[in-house]
Design goal:
Layout: E1 24-33, E2 36-46, E3 51-55, H1 62-68, E4 79-87, E5 90-91, H2 99-105, E6 106-109, H3 120-130, H4 137-147, H5 151-154, H6 167-179, E7 185-189, H7 197-210, E8 215-219, H8 223-229, E9 232-239, E10 244-252, H9 253-258, H10 263-269
Parallel strand pairs: 3-8, 3-9, 6-7, 7-8
Antiparallel strand pairs: 1-2, 1-4, 4-5, 9-10
Helix pairs in contact: 3-4, 3-6, 4-6, 6-7
Length: 274
């Protein structure tokens, strides 16, 4: 299996990696669940070390699209993809690329917090152990929890079951768990939909901190959240008689929310439909 080319650690140009490229370059992406087309003709670039929001009405394929970035959809029987997603210049869907390595390099946080039924410590240590980590695990766990701004809240109860944490803490634990395998990008599929406003604010603040070092893609139904946290916004809609999702417009978030080019985008972000 081909291993993905390591990403350079030097500071990126705005919207690009150290080589001047976007982190992700999506080219004519199409996706099917069995015979049913779910996505069609998606072409866009995702800038490095910024936050890109994917918005659009329910059922337009946002979650399907975001799962294409780390090949999670191929775990669904009968799923099929065409087109390319280049990650720092390398096609994630090339035959020789190992999907397990893709999922390590491109972490994911789901809509509902899903900690393992283990201790807080073991939730973080699980991935590094699986990958053969040989360093000081205590220091590594602390670093991951600090990155997720959770350390001060859990440092005295690391051996307690993760389910004893609040919903917002569990979601930050899941983010810390994703960070523990040292990814290059993080996907977030409605990460705040099950959280209260205070917990949501903490997750949003965390996203801003993480975007200094990570490329982040977030799916959200919350227009205020997209406007608050993202640098770039991609608008998705159903086409082909409301059967297939595609991206109809992408641009800087401020522009998408104030001067969109597509009337459908304007109607959606102003609440006329959706």
């Amino acid at each position: 299996m081909t291993v993905l080319t390591p990403v350079l650690s030097t500071p990126p140009l705005v919207g690009a990696d150290a080589d001047g490229h976007a982190a992700f370059d999506v080219r004519d992406l199409k996706f099917w669940y069995g015979p049913a087309p779910a996505l069609k003709d998606i072409t866009l670039q995702i800038p490095a070390r910024q936050i890109t929001a994917i918005i659009g009405p329910s059922g337009c394929g946002k979650s399907t699209f975001i799962r294409c970035f780390n090949r999670m959809n191929e775990l669904v029987p009968g799923a099929r993809v065409e087109g390319q997603i280049l990650f720092h210049g390398q096609n994630l869907y090339a035959p020789a690329v190992d999907p397990v390595e893709v999922r390590r390099r491109i972490g994911m946080v789901f809509q509902k917090p899903n900690p393992f039924p283990q201790s807080i410590y073991d939730n973080i240590a699980y991935g590094p152990r699986l990958n053969g980590f040989k360093g000081n695990m205590d220091e590594f766990v602390e670093r991951s929890l600090r990155q997720a701004v959770l350390w001060d809240e859990v440092k005295d109860k690391l051996r307690q079951n993760a389910y004893t944490l609040s919903g917002g803490q569990q979601q930050r634990l899941c983010i810390a768990r994703a960070l523990a395998v040292e990814p290059d990008a993080i996907l977030m599929d409605e990460p705040c939909s099950a959280l209260d406003p205070i917990a949501t604010l903490k997750i949003e603040e965390l996203m801003h901190e993480l975007a200094v070092n990570y490329t982040i893609i977030i799916v959200t139904h919350n227009m205020q959240q997209a406007a608050r946290v993202s640098d770039i916004t991609a608008m998705m809609m159903l086409v082909d008689d409301h059967r297939t999702g595609t991206v109809i417009e992408v641009g800087e978030t401020q522009t998408i929310f104030t001067r969109p080019k597509d009337k459908r985008t304007e109607d959606y972000v102003t609440g006329r439909f959706g």
